[in-house]
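Discussion board: Methods & Data

I've been asked by a reviewer to show the raw model output for two of the constructs in my manuscript, not just the figures. I'm not sure how much to include, so I'm pasting the format here to get opinions. Each protein appears as its amino acid sequence followed by a line of discrete structure tokens. Is this the kind of thing reviewers expect to see in a supplement, or should I convert it first? Here is construct A:
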Amino acid sequence: MPVTRVIRWKPLALLAVTVAAVAIVLQVPTTATAAAPITVSQAIGLQGSTATVRGYVVGQPTATNTVVRSNFPGDTALALADSAAETSTSRMLYVQVTASFRAAYGLKTNPSLMGRQLDVTGPLGAYFAHAGLTSPTAITPAGSTPPSSSTTTRPPTTTPTSPPGDYDGTYYRDAIGRTGPALKSSLHQIISTNTKLTYDQVWDALKATDQDPNNSANVILLYSGRSQSKTTNGGNANDWNREHVWAKSHGDFGTATGPGTDIHHLRPEDVSVNADRGNKDFDLGGSAVPEAPGNLTDADSFEPRNAVKGDVARMILYMAVRYDGGDGFADLEPNNNVNNGSAPNIGKLSVLKQWNTQDPPDTFEKRRNQVIYDTYQHNRNPFIDHPEWVNSIWN
């Protein structure tokens, strides 16, 4: 009689065989396939998508139809083209350079980038109202390490308390990519929701915003450049008081809460030097100002020392964007005149634009902007974060 043999599979053995078989069938590569770069001309025609674009650095965009090739005003933008010799902006892609990439790929810091070929990955969209790429996720020398096609994570940005920070994707997101009047209008909406101080509160605020980085008991005076005790504020000779960089008579706003107490344009200054400046417009030339080496003045204008020329320009232009006729105050605007008197204007705009380029934001000015944002008014001077926006608005 035949013997029937029953074979019993051991469950663990069956499981091992099954897992091995599945692994063979479903095995996938451990690294994703790299995205193939596209050309600049292709990127211009693919706005609204995301891609890696390969192109030559041909300059820095400062307005929709303007790309500068030297004397770069900042580290915030690049123009790429398919040829290193390209001069037509219609064949360029404008690339936003966010804070994480500025040290290595900003043109002001790295002018030798001109003519080099880069791979830039990110969303293709309007920048300066022009075909562009904003909020890049990767920037590398062409062909070095192409980013993965599955990469979606942004590079880390600096913390909000680390000046100047990267606020393009948050605070300035509604302004990015705009230019001219549209940019000015957008920035006004962004910065005009600030906390307002009383004129008495300004004293304590300036002791923090203008603190001497080398002596916490002192402040740095704007025009004089002198480090002076915080406790010597007042109205007596050699005291420091509150200088309105946009002279309060230009628009007749006085010291009322609003433009009269906006610490973005209020700075500590020696009482007599403040009087020497008075309500004069800003221009070049004149005689030396006593107690303030490097400053010049004449009958109708004042020229600050070189180290703060850009600071003065950016404060004036901040005021022009912040105060546009709302809040019950005059519409403040720069013009190209002196002797503006009580009109809501200050000049000369052409000189202020020159100073903005000549004296870019330094560590002291950036820190001041951050302290105002973090602790006092909770708004920023956009021209400290983006000096190139000056020419974009007042082209």
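Construct B, same format:
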Amino acid sequence: MEPKSFTILKGGHFGGFQGKGFEIASTTAVKWFEKYLQHVEVPVLEVTAA
């Protein structure tokens, strides 16, 4: 489904979880979330004690 985004990071399997790779991956993700999910209404989940 759309919208999609694709970013290629240099490095190995864990490259997106540390250092410069993490900075790029997390910034890219936040920008996508802000652009496409900022105006989405999400129902509130109420949690009650048992």
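Answer (T.O., handling editor elsewhere):
This is acceptable in a supplement if you add a one-line summary per construct. For B, something like: The chain has a mean pLDDT of 89.
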